[in-house]
Write a structure and sequence with these properties.
There is one protein chain. With 261 residues, the protein is α+β, with helices and mostly antiparallel strands. The protein folds into 2 domains: 2-50; 75-253, Nuclear Transport Factor 2, Chain: A, CATH 3.10.450. 36% of the residues lie in helices and 29% in strands. It contains 7 helices and 11 strands. It has helices at residues 2-7, 17-51, 78-93, 104-107, 131-136, 142-155, 230-241, and strands spanning 9-10, 13-14, 56-59, 65-68, 116-120, 125-129, 165-174, 178-181, 184-197, 200-216, 246-253. Strands 7, 8, 9, 10 and 11 form a 5-stranded antiparallel sheet that branches. The protein has a two-stranded antiparallel sheet with strand order 1-2. The longest helix is centred in the first third of the chain and has 35 residues, at 17-51. The chain is elongated, with a radius of gyration of 35 Å. The N and C termini lie far apart (92 Å).
Length: 261
């Protein structure tokens, strides 16, 4: 025993047998506590991973799948709202006097636009609205569409349908959408309508500066819509226009009072 004690020296100091036992016990206890803490951390990590919702998968009709982030049904991306607003206004305010071609081949021989007849109760008159405007107007909220289209038709010059005038809308600024309620936004749009006539190639300029009110809606899907008849072709066009799951429910001048929810 004496020889064993003499051999146990650390840094030149004698280590008695009781101290060696105490150190060993302390080391074992420390390792045990550390192991327990490590197991607790692993269990907590497993709990958080298990409670995390699984990723949302989207599958295309071709069978390709990819993960997407889940968002509330009423949420929309700001850039998507801006793009929807700009495209809708451009379609409604740009008139060529021809029907949009269905295919590239038909584009070589465009057909004159007969327009869509709209009756206005205020003056008991009938006006023509370009087909492109009528189709694009399905991006509007239905009741607002009934109110807006007759006013727009009165603004359209008759020379559009005679092939003597062309207009196109150029938005110069589309502001960032400002939330005004759940699934509702407003954004300012500054732009110009260029009116080019046969006898005036320089064109006239009409300012179109408005506050646009947009809200989220349920998208319209094309699945199940037959393609045989002309009415079904229109249904597919409407589905394309409303694919953004957004609609415009009010348009006011920039200086007008705000509209609430």
């Amino acid at each position: 025993m004496k020889e064993l004690i003499e051999e146990r020296k650390i840094l030149g100091k004698d280590l008695s047998l009781p101290n060696a036992y105490a150190s060993t016990v302390l080391l074992c206890v420390s390792l045990g506590v550390g192991s327990i803490l490590l197991q607790l951390l692993v269990m907590v990590g497993i709990f958080f991973v298990a409670s995390k919702p699984p990723p949302t998968l989207v599958q295309t009709i071709e069978g390709e799948s990819f993960a997407v982030d889940g968002i509330p049904a009423s949420a929309r991306d700001s850039k998507a709202i801006q793009r929807f607003t700009g495209e809708t206004l451009t379609l409604m305010l740009s008139w060529s006097g021809f029907v949009p071609p269905e295919t590239t081949e038909l584009g070589a021989t465009p057909k004159p636009d007969p327009g869509v007849k709209l009756s206005v109760k205020e003056d008991n008159q009938t006006y023509l609205l370009p087909t492109t405007s009528w189709e694009a107007s399905f991006a509007l909220e239905p009741e607002f569409r009934q109110e807006f289209l007759p006013k727009l038709a009165q603004f359209v010059p008759e020379s559009i349908f005679q092939g003597q005038t062309t207009t196109f809308y150029v938005p110069t600024m589309i502001g960032k959408p400002i939330p005004i309620g759940t699934g509702r936004w407003k954004l300012d749009v500054v732009g110009t309508i260029y009116v080019v006539r046969a006898n005036n190639k320089l064109g006239d300029l009409i300012s179109f500066n408005r506050t646009i009110y947009v809200r989220a809606v349920t998208p319209m899907y094309q699945e199940g819509i037959p393609k045989e008849s002309q009415n079904n072709q229109l249904a597919h066009k409407v589905a394309d226009i409303r694919q953004a799951a957004l609609e415009i429910y009010a348009i006011t001048n920039l200086e007008d009072k705000e509209i609430g929810e």
